[in-house]
Amino acid sequence: MLTSHVRPLDFLLPEELEAGEPPEARGLARDEVRLLVSSYTDNRIEHAQFRQIPQFLAPGDVVVINTSGTMNAALEAIGADGTRYELHLSTHLPADLWVVEVRIPDEHGTKPYYGMREGEVLRLAENGTAALLLPYLPEQRVQDRSQKRLWIATLHLPMSWQEYLKSYGFPIRYRYVRNAWPIEYYQTVYATEVGSAEMPSAGRAFTPELITRLVALGVQVLPLLLHTGVASLEAHEPPYEEYYRVPEETAQGVNAARQAGRRVIAVGTTVVRALETVTTPDGVTHPGEGWTQTIITPERGVRAVHGLLTGLHEPQASHLLMLEAFAPREHLKLVYAEALQKKYLWHEFGDLHLLLP
C-alpha cells in the first residue's frame, strides 16, 4: 500500500464555515451552492455558482461520476452492560462480513469509542445483533493497539441488510450537522446502486437539468461505481480498501479523450481512486472490478485524470494529498486562502471546488 511522507495542508477552519445543513434548508436549490474554479497551470481563480459549471467545460470534455448511492449506515446499538452506542456500517465485505465503527454519544453528537473487545456483541433493533470479530487491519493502521476504531463484524438481522437499513438505519452525520436529515438529502440524483457509508458528495449539486445541459454542450458524462467507507474526520487516516467497478464504456471513453488531447474530469476523490486503480503507468485505463487499496499521493501522481470537482477538505485531511497529485501546494494554499476569505462553506452540504489545468 502506497503512503505519503508529505504532511497534508494545514490551516484554521472557523466553525461558522462548516455547513451544518443542506443548501435546501438555506433556501437554495442543489445547484445554487458556490463554485470556486481554479487553474493549477496559471493560478487563475474564479468564483461562480455551481449551475454555471457548463461555462468552464468544453465540448469533448469527459466528466466521470460515481453512481454509488448512500446507505442509512448508522444504527442505534446497545452493549452487554446497557451502554448505548451508535454503530456505523462502513464496508460490506465478501462472506457477508462488515467493517464497522462503534461510536458513543457526546455533547457534539458522537465520537469514536475505543473500548470494544473481540467477541463483544451489540444488540440492535428487532433482535438484530452485531458481533465484533477482530480489529480491521490492526497491524497496518493501529499504532497504539488500544485505539481499535474499526472492526470486522458479522450482522444477524431479521431481514436483508438493505431492508433493515431502510427501516431502522439513518444517515451518518458528524458534529457539524446538528439536525437529522432524511436519506434523500444524502443522495446524488444519478445514484443507481446503494452501498456507500457516506455520500460521494462532490456530485450532490448536480441536477438532471444541469446534466442535460452538459450533454447538450458536448460534454460526455460517464459512470463508474465506488462504494465509500466511513470517513475519519478525527484521525485523518488515509482511505481503507473499497469496492469499485469501472465499466468498459467508461474506460474506453477516458482513453479516447486522453488520446484526443481532451480533458478528463473526475467528480469526487472516489472517482479518482477508482480510475487510478485501473490505469497503468503508461496512462491506459482498463475496465475492472474489485477492491482497491490505491492511495493517491503527490509522489505517485495521477495518470488518468486532468481535473477534479471536489468539496473543500478539512485541515490535514488525507484528501488534500490527492489534490497535491494534481496541483502544487502553493496553488492549493492560494485556493484555500481565497475560500476562507470569501467564506465558502465546507463539508458535504457545502460549496465546491473545480480544479482544472
Automatic annotation (TrEMBL):
Keywords: Cytoplasm, Isomerase, Queuosine biosynthesis, S-adenosyl-L-methionine, Transferase. The keyword Phosphoprotein does not apply. Pfam families: Queuosine_synth (PF02547). It comes from the Bacteria. GO terms for biological process: tRNA queuosine(34) biosynthetic process. Gene3D superfamilies: QueA-like (3.40.1780.10). This is S-adenosylmethionine:tRNA ribosyltransferase-isomerase. InterPro entries: QueA (IPR003699), QueA_dom1 (IPR042118), QueA_dom2 (IPR042119), QueA_sf (IPR036100).
